[in-house]
Design brief:
InterPro entries: Ankyrin_rpt, Ankyrin_rpt-contain_sf. This protein is mainly alpha-helical. The chain is built from 33 helices and no strands. The relative contact order is 0.04.
Length: about 600
């Protein structure tokens, strides 16, 4: 498959997910300060849409790009290749200014804020923005001579000042030209109060950062999201720029609108080099926490554990001012975050520390082992299970255990690991709720049709294959209700499984399978030596009356050919049901058995 085609497929899926109402705000692609990979994705997305909308677009962002490039070509008498350069300049500027979230929700048609299309009077100004981003000095001079505004920055627009576009594009010569034209290097854009220093720091343009600092641009200036250039550089992973800005006596503990500091962003994004520079500052708060705005009051150590970044984790762990026993707002421990992060070395390190409680439970009762099982991390699960003091049977909300979480992960190796532990209770039952119905582990496997897990459970010497749920339904009944024939066969092969067990309404697996119309399940049940076909529920209705009432003529024939004990009265009752429901084929069939 060509890369361009793959781009199209991914972008279509992404936009379709947004349009369908899926919340993607917490994705690294969407959330937080811009980083190089995010910018690259945003640029590919916009370029893909530009290429699709050849004859005009319903999206103002695409119209801004195409009309802006067309205007530049027209004004400057450029060729087709130059048009693409200007398209890229506008795309780069839009992603740098707006980041990726606003263009994406606009393309998905779910944005609330109206952003205006370009008008004819903007053509020269927009062309200057694109030229500045691409460093087209000769074009810039001509556009300025033709009246382009070097300070162009209109509210409710996809674009900002040419000076900021040059900073985003890393064009030092363009910046110098605009400075010569009297542009104030300290100016903030109207949209988000970012300065050129924010953009240069975020994009990784060290020489421009140095130039702007030499011009007196405030290194600690905050935009409307409370981000400083230092925070932008740290989040984007630019080590040299981080070091340069730290030397300006900037606030190393600045907190942005999401409640995160530069160190927290470095930990979340595994920026080890950045973290190392930040931790060199004597005034850094190495035990800083996410705020409740977007986080869970997780410390930087917890974040590094969750991100699986061993380098940052060890840097923080070596400091005396870091609390290894800190918990977040839900009482999750650092060991839990390490278990979810999946870095086995970090988990080992935590287990070797003094007074770390391997069985600590959060507010919802979840343990580190349960979480490792839930996310399907086999090496970490086995490591935790190997600890002498592990309690494998602790329960969380809804009576969840490590074994049930392993089942939910659908990771067979993780399930095996927990199942094989000598202390595991294999007959644990879920909460008696409408959703979980108090099912046993085997009952749950039977309901979802997981043959592999059901087989492993049945091999365990302690398994109770008849353990009913809160409705009195055995694993066999639960498998019959869902039509999982392989599990029905597995259970019927056991000597201690009753094919005739009734639930709270005395409905047998045969009645359940008949009601659902599962013909093959009915056939297998009828082959069981101990089957009692004529058993009825509390209302006296049998599998035959259910088949007649619901129009399952094939099942009715299986029940009566050969006749497995139904008398004339039972057949007549079934015929009455068939008449009431208008099932003519079954009526004819049942009449023939009354003659």
């Amino acid at each position: 498959m060509y890369p361009e085609r793959l781009d199209s497929i991914i972008i279509d899926w992404f936009l379709a997910a947004l349009k369908a109402g899926q919340h993607l705000d917490d994705l690294p692609l969407i959330f937080g300060p811009l980083q190089p990979s995010t910018a690259a994705m945003g640029m590919r997305l916009l370029m893909e849409q530009v290429q699709r909308d050849h004859q005009g677009s319903s999206y103002s962002v695409i119209n801004t790009i195409t009309q802006g490039a067309d205007g530049a070509v027209d004004i400057l008498k450029l060729n087709h290749d130059d048009r693409r350069v200007y398209i890229m300049g506008l795309i780069s500027t839009i992603i740098g200014l707006m980041r990726i979230y606003t263009p994406i929700i606009h393309l998905a048609g779910i944005d609330d804020e109206e952003i205006d299309d370009l008008n004819e009077n903007d053509r020269h100004h927009v062309a200057l923005v694109a030229a500045a981003n691409r460093g087209r000095i000769a074009d810039m001079k001509r556009l300025i001579d033709l009246g382009a505004d070097v300070n162009f920055d209109r509210k409710k627009s996809w674009l900002g000042p040419p000076f900021h576009a040059a900073a985003i594009g890393g064009q030092e010569a363009a910046i110098q030209l605009l400075l010569d034209c009297g542009v104030d290097p300290k100016v903030a854009c109207t949209e988000n109060q970012d300065t050129a220093l924010h953009f240069a720091a975020s994009a990784g343009h060290e020489s421009i950062v140095r130039l702007l600092l030499s011009l007196g641009v405030e290194p600690d200036v905050q935009n409307s999201d409370k981000e400083t250039p230092l925070l932008s550089a740290a989040a984007a992973g630019h080590v040299n720029i981080t070091k340069l800005l730290l030397a300006q006596n900037t606030d190393v503990n600045v907190v942005d609108a999401t409640g995160r500091t530069p160190l927290l962003w470095a930990a979340w994004r595994s920026r080890e080099g950045v973290a190392r520079e930040l931790l060199e500052r004597k005034d850094i708060n190495a035990d800083c926490t996410d705020s409740e705005i977007e986080g869970m009051n997780m410390t930087a150590l917890a974040v590094a554990a969750l991100a699986g970044c061993e380098g940052i984790f060890n840097l923080l762990l070596s400091r005396p001012d870091v609390n290894i026993h800190a918990t977040d707002s839900d009482d999750h421990t650092i060991l839990k975050h390490a278990a979810v992060g999946g870095n086995e070395a970090i988990v080992k390190t935590m287990l070797d520390l003094p007074d770390v409680d391997i069985n600590a439970q959060a507010e919802d009762g979840m343990t580190s082992l349960m979480w490792a099982a839930k996310v399907g991390n086999e090496p970490v699960v086995r490591l935790l299970l190997a600890q002498k003091n592990i309690n494998v049977n602790l329960t969380a909300d809804q009576q969840l255990t490590a074994l049930t979480m392993a089942m939910a992960s659908e990771n067979l190796e993780v399930f095996k690991a927990v199942l094989q532990h000598k202390d595991t209770d294999v007959n644990v039952q879920f909460e008696e709720s409408e959703e979980l119905e108090g099912a046993s582990t085997l009952g749950w496997a039977a309901s979802v049709g997981n043959v592999d897990m059901a087989s492993l459970l049945l091999e365990h010497p302690d398994i109770d294959p008849e353990l009913p749920d809160m409705l009195g339904r055995t694993p066999l009944a639960r498998a019959a209700i869902r039509g999982h024939i392989e599990i029905v066969r597995l259970l019927l092969a056991l000597d201690d499984v009753s094919v005739n067990s009734g639930d709270y309404r005395n409905e047998t697996p045969l009645i359940h399978a008949t009601v659902q119309g599962y013909e093959e399940v009915v056939r297998v049940l009828l082959d069981a030596p101990q089957i009692q076909v004529v058993l009825g529920n509390v209302g006296g209705q049998t599998a035959l009356t259910a088949a007649a009432a619901l129009g399952h003529d094939v099942i009715a024939r299986m029940l009566l050919e050969p006749n497995r004990g139904f008398g004339k009265d039972a057949i007549q009752e079934s015929l009455d049901f068939a008449r009431q429901r208008g099932h003519k084929e079954i009526q004819h069939f049942l009449k023939s058995h009354l003659e």
